């Protein structure tokens, strides 16, 4: 570095001379207000004659040489520092390894001292019974085989990793004298860690004391084990002695293996792991019952939990099988109509499919319509237990789709030969991992899947004024949806004196008619209130809604129209409902039937899109929300190719959408083009079926005729053989109906008696919805009219297709 500095001091004046002259000349020109001089050769900053440039060349050569010299110096310095660092590290490692080269002479002496201290009080017969089989005479013959000992040594450090077999239980008994016999398989398999510390006789030399330090050595020496005999009075010196304790362990082990070669449990590792440390701890504890172990032995014998605990836990785990499978090729979330229809469709296309239905309810899949219809008209006093009802045609049926024998147990789903459908009840899916294809249940269980269907249905809405009213009002309010709700309301109708139904839609009107029919016999007051002008005022045109309201009143129901609830309180044992117009209703119980909110709780964790207008999961034409996730039923917001995006909350839609989703889950890739229908029965005499968009705000055209005895829900079920009318639908009926077969139109009736008829709902002069009033089994014709999407000049002619004028 000093040489470079000296060279720079000599060369610097040359550089400064040429640059200084240029700077001074420029300054003079500026100060004299002269024009800035132009340098002809600005690259040659030289004080010599013009065109020379030799000084500049020398300058660059010297500067380059200086840089090279500095780089070489820096490189040599770094290399030297690295070499000195390596030498220093080598010296440190050599110093630290010298003390470790001489291991265990003090340690061995310490182990021998500890073993002698333990063996002095050991004069009990239990120790002799344990030691004698392990130091039998064949020890000298079997000593050259150290491999079993090596196996024990390598696997002893982790006894808890392998479940302990039940054979180890005899070793756990308190009276060891009774359990330890020469034929006992567990005692013969006991480790020889105890032999060194418990030997009372002169047969066991003190040299076997290091035997308890079994986990320390890594490489056993067989020749050292062969050199030791049971009768030797002094320890044999061992030359390569760092791992001397291992041979002393291997000889008794060989003796044990010879004495009982056939006693090996199912997992061989489990025998060694169970018999080694826990048994050692138990026997050593008996040998020095009133005296603690010396410090040396305490370090040798590892601390392990009592064998009683570790043995009982695997036994209990084996006794209790898994509650549910951990994987399901087809996972259906929800136990309603859509899930069951999907399961049946999957099994139809894939007979060996394994389908798992997870439902929050405690019941198997069942149909919901009878809960507000036929079950209330049953004469069976045990209907709440049997849940069987008589349809309008007199046939008896259960609300469950299939008996329990139809399903397989969830624990057998993965092993059953031909697959099946299993239902996991009482569990709710709390979280959905769409990337990992797994769900987490309410009890913490995780289930993976290949394909998943979300059919969670909906949750009944409640009025905010009721939610804010307090616990006393909520205890006396029913949100009607499930089997438990039917049972509770049926019990209330028999015990209380008054029930008020809030809501004038399908559910509210059906429950009002059902309870009104029973009010006379039970002495029950039934009140129905809603903000519309008549029952089902949002669906039916005003004239038909008013006619329906009169029909409900005839059933014994007190109907309050245009009733908006303002406040609800609990006073003097009654629920008091105040309306905005000042009316007050006091009742014993309230039924809120004000609509359904789609259950979309999984949307957040699954990252699925929710429709902001209609609610529910947005799906494509194949009812698919993501690549392996489908949605069906009330929770699906689908695109109707004729009517646009919609969400339908009816039984028929659940059946059809569930069936289509199941087909697409098996690879069908079919679009959803079906126009679902729905129906409602106000008792056995009045009922209607509807399809498409039925909204009372749309313009309507109604064509009615005189009803006959065949034009009732009861007659319809007698003809079709089923109360669930959507099950009897076939698309072929629409093609078989000809326009020419329609009967001529009779003269209009003089009396307003809407016995039967067809109501058309129009949008831009096109039929978008149809209600068949007491006209049954004609739904395929209505579906075809909506599907065609044509303008009709005279809807009376279209009504002839339904044969409403037949006698």
Compose a concise summary of this entry.
This protein is of the alpha/beta class. Helices cover 38% and strands 17% of the residues.
What's the story with the biggest beta sheet? 8 strands, mixed
Global morphology: elongated
Name the beta content range: 15-25%
Show unreliable segments.
43-48, 100-109, 117-321, 726-751
Account of the protein in words:
By secondary structure, the chain is an alpha/beta fold. It is built from 29 helices and 28 strands. Helix 16 runs parallel beside helix 25 (651-665).
Set down the secondary structure blueprint.
Layout: H1 2-31, H2 54-100, H3 105-119, H4 125-134, H5 139-142, H6 147-155, H7 176-179, H8 185-188, H9 193-198, H10 222-226, H11 245-259, H12 268-275, H13 277-287, H14 295-300, H15 307-319, E1 327-333, H16 337-349, E2 354-358, H17 369-372, H18 383-386, E3 388-390, E4 396-398, E5 420-424, E6 429-433, E7 438-441, E8 446-454, E9 458-460, H19 464-467, H20 471-475, E10 477-479, H21 483-495, E11 498-502, H22 506-522, E12 525-529, H23 542-554, E13 557-560, E14 565-571, E15 574-579, E16 584-587, E17 589-592, E18 596-598, H24 602-606, E19 617-618, E20 624-626, E21 629-631, E22 636-640, E23 644-646, H25 651-665, E24 677-681, E25 687-692, E26 700-705, H26 713-720, H27 732-736, E27 756-763, E28 766-773, H28 779-788, H29 795-799
Helix pairs in contact: 1-2, 6-11, 16-25
């Amino acid at each position: 570095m000093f040489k470079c500095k000296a060279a720079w001091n000599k060369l610097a004046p040359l550089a400064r001379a040429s640059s200084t002259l240029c700077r001074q000349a420029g300054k003079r020109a500026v100060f004299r207000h002269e024009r800035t001089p132009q340098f002809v050769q600005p690259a040659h900053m030289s004080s010599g004659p013009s065109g020379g440039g030799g000084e500049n060349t020398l300058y660059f050569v010297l500067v380059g040489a200086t840089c090279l010299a500095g780089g070489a110096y820096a490189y040599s310095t770094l290399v030297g520092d690295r070499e000195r660092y390596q030498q220093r590290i080598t010296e440190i490692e050599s110093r630290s390894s010298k003390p470790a080269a001489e291991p265990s002479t003090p340690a061995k002496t310490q182990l021998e001292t500890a073993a002698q201290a333990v063996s002095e009080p050991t004069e009990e017969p239990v120790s002799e019974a344990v030691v004698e089989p392990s130091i039998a005479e064949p020890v000298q013959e079997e000593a050259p085989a150290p491999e079993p000992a090596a196996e024990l040594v390598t696997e002893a450090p982790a006894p808890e990793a392998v479940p302990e077999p039940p054979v180890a239980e005899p070793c756990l008994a308190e009276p060891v004298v009774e359990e330890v016999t020469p034929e006992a398989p567990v005692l013969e398999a006991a480790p020889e860690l105890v032999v060194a510390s418990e030997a009372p006789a002169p047969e066991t030399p003190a040299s076997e004391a290091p035997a308890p330090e079994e986990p320390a050595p890594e490489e056993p020496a067989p020749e050292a084990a062969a050199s030791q005999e049971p009768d030797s009075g002094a320890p044999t010196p061992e030359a390569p002695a760092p791992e001397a304790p291992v041979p002393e362990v291997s000889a008794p082990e060989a003796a044990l293996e010879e004495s009982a070669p056939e006693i090996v449990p199912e997992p061989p590792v489990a025998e060694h792991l169970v018999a080694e440390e826990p048994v050692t701890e138990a026997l050593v504890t008996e040998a020095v019952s009133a005296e603690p172990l010396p410090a040396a032995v305490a370090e040798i014998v590892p601390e392990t939990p009592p064998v009683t605990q570790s043995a009982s836990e695997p036994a209990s785990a084996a006794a209790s099988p898994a509650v549910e499978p951990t994987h399901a090729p087809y996972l259906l979330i929800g136990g309603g109509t859509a899930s069951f229809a999907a399961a049946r469709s999957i099994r139809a296309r894939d007979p060996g499919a394994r389908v798992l239905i997870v439902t929050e309810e405690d019941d198997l899949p069942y149909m919901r319509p009878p809960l507000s219809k036929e079950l209330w008209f049953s004469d069976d006093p045990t209907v709440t237990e049997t849940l069987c009802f008589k349809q309008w045609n007199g046939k008896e049926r259960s609300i469950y789709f299939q008996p329990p024998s139809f399903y397989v147990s969830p624990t057998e789903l993965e092993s059953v030969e031909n697959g099946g459908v299993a239902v996991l009840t009482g569990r709710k899916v709390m979280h959905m991992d769409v990337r990992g294809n797994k769900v987490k249940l309410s009890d913490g269980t995780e289930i993976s899947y290949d394909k998943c269907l979300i059919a969670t249905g909906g949750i009944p809405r409640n009025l905010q004024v009721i939610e804010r009213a307090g616990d006393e009002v909520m205890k006396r309010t029913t949100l009607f949806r499930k089997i438990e709700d039917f049972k509770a309301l049926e019990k209330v109708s028999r015990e209380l004196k008054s029930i008020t139904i809030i809501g004038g839609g399908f559910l509210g009107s059906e429950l009002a008619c059902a309870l009104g029919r029973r009010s006379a016999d039970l002495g029950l007051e039934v009140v129905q209130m809603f903000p519309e002008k008549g029952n089902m005022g949002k669906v039916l045109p005003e004239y038909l809604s008013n006619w329906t309201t009169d029909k409900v009143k005839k059933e014994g129901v007190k109907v309050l129209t245009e009733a908006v609830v303002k406040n609800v309180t609990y006073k003097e044992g009654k629920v008091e409902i105040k309306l905005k117009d000042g009316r007050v209703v006091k009742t014993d119980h309230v039924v809120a039937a004000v609509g359904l909110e789609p259950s979309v709780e999984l949307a957040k964790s699954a990252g699925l899109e929710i429709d902001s207008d209609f609610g529910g999961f947005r799906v494509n034409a194949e009812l698919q929300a993501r690549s392996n996730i489908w949605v069906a039923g009330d929770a699906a917001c689908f695109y109707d190719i004729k009517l646009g995006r919609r969400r339908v909350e009816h039984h028929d839609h659940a059946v059809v959408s569930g069936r289509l989703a199941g087909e697409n889950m098996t690879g069908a890739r079919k679009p959803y083009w079906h126009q679902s229908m729905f129906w409602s029965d106000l008792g056995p005499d009045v009922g209607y079926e509807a399809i498409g968009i039925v909204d009372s705000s749309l313009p309507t055209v109604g064509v009615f005729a005189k009803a006959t005895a065949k034009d009732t829900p009861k007659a319809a079920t007698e003809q079709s053989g089923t109360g669930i009318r959507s099950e009897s639908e076939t698309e072929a009926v629409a093609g078989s109906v000809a326009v020419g077969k329609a009967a001529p139109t009779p003269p209009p009736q003089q009396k307003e008696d809407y016995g039967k008829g067809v109501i058309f709902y129009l949008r831009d002069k096109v039929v978008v919805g149809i209600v068949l009033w007491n006209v049954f089994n004609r739904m395929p014709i209505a579906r075809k009219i909506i599907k065609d999407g044509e303008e009709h000049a005279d809807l009376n002619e279209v009504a002839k297709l339904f044969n409403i004028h037949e006698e």
